[in-house]
Prior knowledge:
With about 240 residues, this protein is an alpha/beta fold. It is built from ten helices and eight strands. The chain has helices at about 20-30, 40-60, 75-85, 95-110, 130-135, 140-155, 165-175, 200-205, 215-220, 225-240, and strands at about 10-15, 35-40, 60-70, 90-95, 115-120, 160, 180, 210-215. Helix 3 (about 75-85) packs across helix 4, helix 4 (about 95-110) packs parallel to helix 6 (about 140-155) and helix 6 packs across helix 7. This is Orotidine 5'-phosphate decarboxylase.
Amino acid sequence: MPFVAAHPRDRLILALDVATVAEAERLIAELRGTVGVWKIGYRLVFAGGLALAERLVAEGEKVFLDVKLLDIDNTVAEGIASILATGVDWVTLHAYPKAMRAAVAAKAAMPAARTRLLGVTVLTSMDDADLAAAGYTGRVDDLVLARARDAVAAGMDGIVCSAAEAARLRAAVGPDLVLVTPGVRPAGSPAGDQKRVTTPGEAIRAGADLVVVGRPILAAPDRRAAAVAIVADLAEACEKR
Length: 241
């Protein structure tokens, strides 16, 4: 089923890439109402972020748990089962076929679970040279497409990909697979350590459903204004898509 957003802000995922739960809580209090989804990744997970995720779920907030699981089938399935019990809205795992099939099977065994499974195709910090250095012989866009098709075959809810690949992927996999795009930067923002970037509006027009933004909001002098501007860009793009 295609992703439907009740409000344009529901398409904005804020990466809470901070060192402590206290700092994350201050950001949430500051930005609540302007951001649709809170992303909790490795840095915060290992600093008490899982308890924060459960509190946010209890408060009715949407949570994106970015843990990028990859392990043997049984371990992935057990990890997914534990995550589903938290009630978070999204969880990521690397888009390897066996891992995705194990995750989907674990979710099928818990039919009441609402968490959606996302396969991470190729990290947006990587380009063709990085793939070659890691032992891959193909191009990034071809590997992303192959992993997107694997995600469809496995029964995943969506994938994480660069907006640079979104249009090609949308045409290849159809409307039902949710496309989440990190590496998003508003016009004029520095790319940082990302190599495949685009603006929020461009990502939506290319076929993305949700965008992940971190530093362009977190480092802004007026964070609420930065978030509001991004949501306005998303809303305009949705109207024109």
